[in-house]
Amino acid sequence: MANEFETRSDRQYYIDWLRILLIISVYIFHVGMIFNTWEWHVKNDVLYGGLLKQVMIFLHNWRMPLLFMISGAGTWYALKNISAGRYLLERSRRLLVPLAAGIFILVPVQVYIERIHIYSSLLDYYPHMFEGIYPEGNFSWHHLWFIAYLFVIALILSPFLNILRSSRFMAIVGNLEHILTRPFGLNIVIIPLFISQLILRNYFEQETHALVNDWATFTYYLIFFLAGFILLPVRSIAGAMTRYRGLYLAETAVMMTLMLLVRGKVDSVRAAEVVYDVAAIVMSWSCAVAVTGYGRRYLDRNSSFRKTANEAIYPFYLLHQPALVITGYLVVKLDIPVFLKVCLVMSSSLILVMSVYWFLIRPFNVTRVLFGMKPQFKSPTNKFNVMKTNEVKNGKYSSSKNACAVMFSLILVSVSLSSRAQETNPERTLFGPDVSYTSVWAPEVKISSIQGKAGALIGGYSGVMINRTFMLGFAGGVNLTHPTVNYGYFGGIAQAVAYPAKMVHISAQLIIAYGTTKDYENPKSSLFDNFWNISGERFMMTEPGVNIEVNLSEGVALVAGAGYRFVSGIDSGNEYVDITHLTSQDMSGVNFSLGLKITKAGRK
């Protein structure tokens, strides 16, 4: 059966509607967090379980997985034929910029309110922002974890874009089409979901949203994202979701009933947990499929409200939790019935969010970009500074649109002809014949502080740069200059470079590595003094960072950067840790680097 993909130019309105409704469900979920029995940033004086708890368990199990699946489908439609480098640049603008803005503008408000008894004002809190990792410390991204996870997924996906868009991969999906389009056939996706959790939950039991120790949850969401990216654009598979939506809804109800009853009916606690976890995975997937099917059937239509809401929903997501923490902190102190508290929290937080959006974000290009929106388009015929859309059809813009249409048609024809010519070429490459490869060698020195004392790490990274915009490789280093703590690490690195041809440009990177420490009870008199005296502990390290690169000559760049080292896994009960008192929090912290990046062109 030949699979037919939806055209990328056709707007899938139901995806917009589902995204809007899912973000609203996230808002409602966080309203409930103020009043239920789970830990949250602001809590009411009286907490409620019962029905509220069960409703929130139901929402928790499927709303975020479906949001990742919808994000995957939206990514497929947004990609068109752009390169991996262009894709990462677009993702950086839409994800990294709002993430950074949110961490420095929105999250501090929430942490300050949680610890208002410690700091006299928000300005008093800011100098302490980087003191430790939340919840013990102050630094956090709170609800912005979703944006961070999406960007890491983009980093993982970008090297494989050409493969995922190739006719060979589409043929593989087509071979599965006869299974996926049968009743309950889409449940085949439950297999990788189950296997990922069976393996990774042994190492990452809790859902932390911290990325560095949350790989089971991250992989779970990654599979949902890929399901949306690969399956939803296939017309017959999306049609099966619509056709069998009632069956998947029934499966959802059965699994949810099993989750509610199993813990009280099964004698073995361990057996009850296993049944509950398996039922939760099945329920999450079947509910996501059912909601997508119903959305595709009843919400695939346009309206002026959809356009307005779709533009506002991203800033709404960024703003909603700080608004709830602020209004919740004020409302929970009032001596009024809980129903009135809920109404007051919702009404006041919505007014706050929409006021900030409408008067401070929407009118100004700077704030629009900071909150993930497209900048406004200004022209003599556009006096209200609205965005340029397909509806702008007058004057010179109509002419330019026609010219663009002609040029786009010529591009499509040339791409079609070149792809036909490539099909006759027996040579097969991983990323395509138009991709250039460059080897990279980058020695560097990093300065960081551990337990209040600074040390220098000597190391670097090496890898393969693809089209001068994306690099995959290995990174490592060793610190022998710290007075009490030596450590080393080795792992993988991914790096995205923006505008590499410019003399001064930037790059963003992520290192995930395994390391060990060598800790000392007393300060060393030399680099190797007492080197074999005290042993250390193993750890996992995740280090995001950003660099400024200056091209010194062809193939050589000076690189200065900053990053934050997140360390986990140091066992506080280790006998050597009892002596040195070194913790994961001690090893975590800001570091600054200086080095050279040496590149050598490879094959094309």
How do the strands and helices of this protein lay out in sequence?
Layout lengths: L12 H21 L16 H30 L4 H22 L1 H8 L7 H4 L19 H13 L3 H4 L2 H14 L9 H11 L14 H16 L4 H9 L1 H21 L3 H30 L5 H28 L6 H24 L3 H6 L24 H29 L13 E14 L2 E14 L3 E10 L5 E14 L5 E16 L18 E16 L2 E13 L6 H6 L3 H4 L1 E13 L3
Antiparallel strand pairs: 1-2, 1-8, 2-3, 3-4, 4-5, 5-6, 6-7, 7-8
Helix pairs in contact: 1-2, 1-13, 1-14, 2-10, 2-13, 3-6, 4-14, 9-10, 11-13, 12-13, 14-15
| Helix-strand string | HHHHHHHHHHHHHHHHHEEEEEEEHHE
Strand content: 15-25%
Task: Output the number of helix runs.
Answer: 19
Overall shape: globular
Give the terminus-to-terminus CA distance. Answer: 36 Å
Number of strands: 8
How many whole angstroms does the radius of gyration measure?
A: 26 Å
CATH architecture of the domain at 437-601: Beta Barrel
Which structural class should the secondary elements be placed in?
alpha+beta
- Summed over residues and divided by their number, the pLDDT gives a mean of 83
Under CATH, the topology of the domain at 437-601 can be stated as: Porin
Major β-sheet profile: 8 strands, antiparallel, barrel
The CATH C-level class name of the domain at 437-601: Mainly Beta
Q: Would you identify the regions where 5 or more consecutive residues have pLDDT less than 50?
A: 379-433, 530-534
Q: What proportion of the residues is helical, as a percent range?
A: 40-55%
Major sheet: arrangement of strands: 1-2-3-4-5-6-7-8
